[in-house]
Amino acid sequence: NKGNYEHYMQKEIHEQPESLTTTMRGRLIRGGSCKAKSVLLGGLKDHLKTIRRSRRIVFIGCGTSYNAALAARPILEELSGVPVTMEIASDLLDRQGPIYREDTAVFVSQSGETADTLHALEYALENGALCVGITNTVGSAIARNTHCGVHINAGCEIGVASTKAYTSQIVVMAMVALAIGDDTISSQARRESIIDGLFDLPNKVREVLKLDQEMKDLAKLLIAEQSLLMFGRGYNYATALEGALKVKEVALMHSEGILAGEMKHGPLALVDENLPIVVIATQDACFSKQQSVIQQLHARKGRLIVMCSKGKASSVCPSGSCRVIEVPQVEDCLQPVVNIVPLQLLAYHLTVLRGYNVDQPRNLAKSVTTE
Ligand code: UD1
Ligand code: F6R
């Protein structure tokens, strides 16, 4: 049922304040006079000790689910102190990469049925790792075959392009990081401010959804482009990859997410006055580095569209010559949840304006059950 919306993708983008609320329901503890704020993940609580003791945490997934894990990686590293590595499921299998008994392998999958991820799970089970699932589908193969896990509870996602599952996956993995770090006194203040940020996150997403018309106007400007680059770093490297994935898979426009730190190692050669470039430069520890990336792109006459925190337009675009997308600022590790929304809207409007099928992109299936 699409309700008042024309497409499922549109409906699922707009229902993110509600899906995020459902994802967090019953899992955030407000705390009180003598009790600290904390998170409660029923499916993980008996396994936290083992996870904290593991030698490494390995995230394994495909496509959007991989990108969600990439967005959560920095906060998991920070709060757990355990090294976190990333594996695209098919690549792990191609290499038969090493997985050890002392590893915690985390399988991220909206459907819980993706063949590559499922085969990687079988492989990790054979190698004796603790296998944790993060999935949206109760009773799915990944939910059944992992030792433990967390359901993201985002509600059924019908559009082939994943939107609300992505934001809920990031929130769940941030909650996993909070739960693993729960025994560390030195990070308690940090954890409590993230928990406050989670409580307020649905409101911030509601606020960023107001950019709908602005994103439609931007889509009109970009409708006939051949290509669109997206630069991000730190927490928002994942945002660049995921924004580009949305644009290519639904709007059928070439788009590439680029780690901004890699700019001078090749991509800079592409920059001219024609190619549109989205730069994600919201407020966080990498901000000044992104400012210098913007200056360098600007010096090469790049056509820039800069995403920045509200009120910061003049610090990312002093000359006023680039287009600016201002988004509400949230806790750094939650910023990817807010930042992806305008890019989802952009991909959606580009697709409609270009006349392509939004909910069933050419050649793609919702659940990829073959390798
Ligand atoms: C559970 C109930 C929820 C109820 C809540 C009340 C289910 C599915 N969930 O939610 O309806 O409101 O208790 O306390 O009945 N699991 C895996 N792999 C995965 C995902 C989950 O093994 O990929 C396991 C978990 O370890 C757990 C179980 O499935 O044992 C349920 O997980 P989850 O729904 O996340 O647990 P709760 O949030 O506690
Ligand atoms: C992109 C998209 C795909 C899936 C990928 C993994 O919008 O939906 O990239 O994310 O096929 O699917 P799941 O998460 O079901 O394992």
UniProtKB/TrEMBL annotation:
Pathway: Nucleotide-sugar biosynthesis; UDP-N-acetyl-alpha-D-glucosamine biosynthesis; alpha-D-glucosamine 6-phosphate from D-fructose 6-phosphate: step 1/1. Keywords: Aminotransferase, Glutamine amidotransferase, Repeat, Transferase. It comes from the Eukaryota. Its EC number is 2.6.1.16. It catalyses: D-fructose 6-phosphate + L-glutamine = D-glucosamine 6-phosphate + L-glutamate. Residues 47-186, 218-361 form the SIS domain. GO terms for biological process: fructose 6-phosphate metabolic process; protein N-linked glycosylation; UDP-N-acetylglucosamine metabolic process. Signal peptide: none annotated. GO terms for molecular function: carbohydrate derivative binding; glutamine-fructose-6-phosphate transaminase (isomerizing) activity. It is an enzyme of class 2 (transferase). This is glutamine--fructose-6-phosphate transaminase (isomerizing). It comes from Tetracentron sinense.
